[in-house]
Amino acid sequence: MTTERAAAQNPDSVPDSVLDRFYGVIPAGGTGTRLWPLSRAAAPKFLHDLTGSGSTLIRATYDRLRPLCGGRTMVVTGIAHRRAVLKQLPEIEDRDLVLESEPKDSAAAIGLAAAILHQRNPDTIMGSFAADQVITPVEVFQAAVREAIHTAAQGYIVTIGIEPTHPSTGFGYIRAGAALDVPGAPSAHAVIEFVEKPSEEVALGYLDSGSYSWNAGMFVAPVALMLKHLEANEPVLYEGLTEIAAAWDTPRRVEVARRVWPGLPKIAIDYAVAEPAAAEGDVAMIPGSFSWDDVGDFAAIGRLNPATENRELKVMGEGARVFSENASGIVVSDTKRVIALIGIKDVVIVDTPDALLVTTKEHAQEVKKAVEHLRASGDTDVL
What we know:
alpha/beta; globular
């Protein structure tokens, strides 16, 4: 039993100052191919206001975390997004903006953040939350994260499992085990295993059992424990990340990162850390009863946006010029072109200056096929 976990036996051993050790990490990557042509390589979905709230997804993510970490936040994103991210988050200090020269998947992104934070203070507890998720109500989310921080302080890698609302085949699942006795975290449970995306029949069984939650990729953990499992399971990746981290707050940052980063292996954090850690009993879960959406396609945007004057048709875009008669669906317009819809149901129209998408909500998940075709045919100027 670790010292941290042994402390869980004594409620008085967990001071409120444990929250002072918390540092937020926001991985901001991916291009959101199912949201093309609105989301593109140069302007991925986390840089857009997709909910009609007046706030981009990355800004909303930062604002959710700020009351928990007091602004102690690190963002991991691509070099091409540096200016746009800083425009959205001017509070981020240069040393807390981690720029990837090329995407290396989540283990490298989250692992580098952990390594840098460990270099500065090995007692840090980090919380990784993707930049492109929509969560409400914020207060319920924050309460779950507080429980996760207290649980992490006892020597666990903690994931926040989302209470499933339907038998989704598009998400991975987390199987919960016995309740844990953690001061400050009454809903903490052990994690038995992580499960890959299931068939619909299997997902129905998960839903009926009540023992499974959606895996939203939210992790709260002591940076030392995160790195321990990374070193055990991906030693080459661990070695490269620690080399970059050692130089991060020195004048050698750029030189070392440019030399080491391109050679790092690509692997997801689930495979590199979470799954093997769960097998060793080092993973816990806090159930999240808040509403969560990863805005995976245009049908999701339709669900998330408030009703317009025409309840059947949701329109997004400043100054959008849309006429509709007996029509339903969603229109996203980035032009001044007039769009007229007559007698058409569940349509999805995305109008930009150089690309037009027309599909239906039913086929919204298939938009990525158009992106793949355009890339294969060399039409990368619109991607």
